[in-house]
Amino acid sequence: MSIRFGLFEVDADRRLLLKNSGEVHVTRKAFDLLVLLLAEAPRVVRKEELHRRLWPDTFVSDATLVGLIKELRRALDDHGGTAPRLRTAHGVGYAFAGELRGQAAPAVASCWIVLGSRRIVLEDGEHLIGRDPTATVHLNVAGISRRHARIVVTGTRAVLEDLESKNGTLVNDAAATKPLVLHDGDRIQLGPVVVVYRVSASGVSTETIVVEPTQ
Hints:
The termini are far apart. The protein is of the alpha+beta class. Strand 18 and strand 19 (193-200) form a beta hairpin. It has a 6-stranded antiparallel sheet with strand order 10-9-19-18-15-16, with no helix packed on it. The protein has a 5-stranded antiparallel sheet with strand order 4-3-2-1-8, with helices on one face. It has a 5-stranded mixed sheet with strand order 12-11-13-14-17, with no helix packed on it. The chain is elongated. The longest helix has 14 residues, at 62-75. The chain is 16% helix and 35% strand. Helix 1 crosses helix 3 (62-75).
């Protein structure tokens, strides 16, 4: 994925921020934040969503997020004015407001489920979870219904729905009693099994994530 705006280019595959073809150094989390905002542009991404997607398993203060925004503004020569690239929606979140050129981030976004050491990629469309042999996420485990739940993916958006399963579905320990939009790092408990939903604007991550089964 390559996205251009002004004198800058973001190469997500090589994890590079370039200005006039020269590399601009930013920290790993600042780069992740920039790619996330580009992927969602021009939508304002709420602070709680940014925390969930950038630090899914760690609590950090708002000051850490503000520090990353300041770092990106310095790197992007974004000194405010009447048309800032990084727009602050006070008390809500942040958005990338610059004019983009090149390939849009959502076109290369990837969603996947982490199940133990397995990684199950979710293409656009409906994905059944359960003991049904045809299920995308096949869980042949006691306590899992044949058609337990489903995830419907449209671009970067994924919606989870429990299919009236016997033992229910939880998302981040809350019962999924109605269709829920999933966010990166959400923990989904299906009966006795826990999986993690992941999404990335730069494709499927190569990191290894191990989810310990619940007892």
